[in-house]
Amino acid sequence: MLGMQRIFGSALLTAALVCATPLPVAPAAPNVAAAQANWGSCLPIVDGAEQAPGAQCAMLTVPIDYDAPGAGVARIAVVRVPATGQRLGALLVNPGGPGASAVDTVVAMGSALAGSPINTHFDLVGFDPRGVGYSQPLLRCLTDAEFDAWRREPMADYSPAGVARIEALNKQYADRCAAKTGTAVLAHVGTREAARDMDEVRKMLGDEQINYLGFSYGTRIGTEYVNRFGPRVRAMVLDGAIDPSAGPLDAILHQMAGFQSAFDDFAADCARSADCPLGTDPSQANARYRQLVDPLVTRPARTADPRGLSYADAITGTFNALYSPQLWRYLTRGLTGLARGTDPGDLLTLADEYQGRDRSGHYTNAQDAFNAIRCVDAPWPTDPAVWAGLDAEVREAAPFAAYGSHTGRAPRDICSFWPVPPTSSPAPATAAEPGQVVVVSTTGDPATPYQAGVSLARQLGGSLVTFQGTQHTAVFNGNECLDTTVLAFLIDGKTPPSGLRCG
């Protein structure tokens, strides 16, 4: 999973406005019909809506297939937190995933950024892409019980029989998606549709132009939108960028190398303590990690939770913690539990958070949406030899995550068995208007590596801001240099100086 923005808010944003002369108010579109907007309270609909008392919610009806409007409709959940001062327009936000709820994100932002320049000058707006979050129909592939069972599978045996079993499970997953959601819906849930839906949201808001802040996969939506609807963008910030020209296997390889780099940073930080479960020699951290987690393939560890810690959950929990140093202490505690034979439950909690499972055992549909969207956003190879070759490269790029040794074979991904064809293919972005886009890329971003942002900024002809750190995305996380720069761009249209580095 590409991951998503987790934290909003900083002292900077709650301070006085840093930019003296805002740009003129964005004019309303004279021929836009906003009649579909039946705004009401979010309280009956959105969990935690009380955090942002001013939040308003609505459902927007769009065609499932824009080329065949009579083939059915989807209903897009939209939330807005109105500007409290001189309104410059709407700031649409997408937190990534794919599969994360922008509605939930904007509700949280509305609370965290109350009184800030952002909330003063912009309506904060989020819409859940079709199939995601509160939108309908909802993408579903597995029941809660089926998802729990899926997570108990180690999927680590790359013998001929093991690969056959993993591929059978992957095909079963794809078949269940088709059965539960329907191929007519699955064929129209990609980024291509999300960009068109976003323009319908713009019309609903009654604005000629939008502002946009996209994190992680949200940068893919933003890139698609500015390439398709360029004149309708006032200002766009893309943080944690995806390179649209990269194929899916290249993206996997680069991402795994990014997670290895983040793991190395974690191991070096951990090694400063004599109690580090990976030891005090960072050069041995990969081997020590494997010693701790490999036994879980055949025997899960006992936890206070009766499910125990499976091998798959230990790996997932580790990846989740590597998104941000703020989560490293939980990874340390979980690995310490494995090392000492005590409860490694922190790793299970990390895995639950990543997979969208709450304490009652219910899952969001984030993972099902993640798979459904990525599988139609690019062609995926079906040749087993291609996957075997990728496995060899990934093991070299990310040895901390490599179980056993390369066997010359590897299972094909779920997307290799997907029941509908892709609707997009990798292609470079076309240049946006000068001063229209700012790309923020983090040097140690594990999920969307730094060079992807460099590449996207070059393709779009946008400004590149480099953030120095080990985390996934950085805007509005409290760095004064970065947040001041983004505020100046969004409010005043001031482009960052060339070569700016923050962090």
Automatic annotation (TrEMBL):
Keywords: Hydrolase, Signal. The keyword Hydrolase applies. Residues 90-477 form the AB hydrolase-1 domain. InterPro entries: AB_hydrolase_1, AB_hydrolase_fold, Serine_prot/Carboxylest_S33. It holds the Pfam family Abhydrolase_1. One of its GO terms (molecular function) is hydrolase activity. Residues 1-28 form the signal peptide. Belongs to the peptidase S33 family. This is Alpha/beta hydrolase. It comes from Mycolicibacterium brumae. The lineage of its organism: Bacteria, Bacillati, Actinomycetota, Actinomycetes, Mycobacteriales.
